[in-house]
Amino acid sequence: MQTEVVLSLGGNKGNREKLLFHAVEALNDQFQLLKVSKIYETAAWGGVAKGDFLNQIAVISTEKEPEEVLEIIHEIESDLGRTREEPWGDRTMDIDILYFGEKVIDSDLLKIPHRFIPERKFVLVPLNELFPERKHPVLKKTSTQLLEECQDPSEVKAWMK
User: Fold this and answer.
1) Secondary structure of the chain in the HEC alphabet?
2) Which sequence spans correspond to the domains of the chain?
3) Could you give the residue numbers annotated as active site?
């Protein structure tokens, strides 16, 4: 059975636009790519990374289990030069699973829905673009409601070349 999976993509090292393009291309090679949001530019979040990020949402469809999808996206991140030296540090590519259908998973390996969705404007703005009425399976609030309630002061702006 096919499951719709919502992913957050972002990076602040290297050619950010090109890396996003390659990440989306790699996702399309591995899964059925359904749609992508616009690209947004935001200041680094979490107090560790230094440069501005480009972020985007990608929606895929897959028959794979969440752990298999996680393994594939980690391979894509590595192929695009991702290293994991410092949590929330500078990186070429970060791909997070936001939603996996309506599943709720809380394991050592995976937390779905992603626990920081309500706190990150760089996730909520593109999520609201694609799914304004989609309800968070735990909080039971739409993307629009979560964005309106978000306390993140970061500016998220559509990226222009």
Assistant:
1) CCEEEEEEEEECCCCHHHHHHHHHHHHHHHCEEEEECCCEEECCCCCCCCCCEEEEEEEEEECCCHHHHHHHHHHHHHHCCCCCCCCCCCCCCEEEEEEECCCCEECCCCEECCCCHHHCHHHHHHHHHHCCCCECCCCCCEHHHHHHHCCCCCCEEECCC
2) 3-158
3) 82, 91, 94, 96
Place of tokens 């994991």: 84
pLDDT in tens, 90-109: 788 999 999 999 999 999 99
Share of the chain above pLDDT 70, in %: 91
What are the tens digits of pLDDT across the range 80-93?
986 666 555 578 89
Can you identify the CATH homologous superfamily of domain 3-158? 7,8-Dihydro-6-hydroxymethylpterin-pyrophosphokinase HPPK (3.30.70.560)
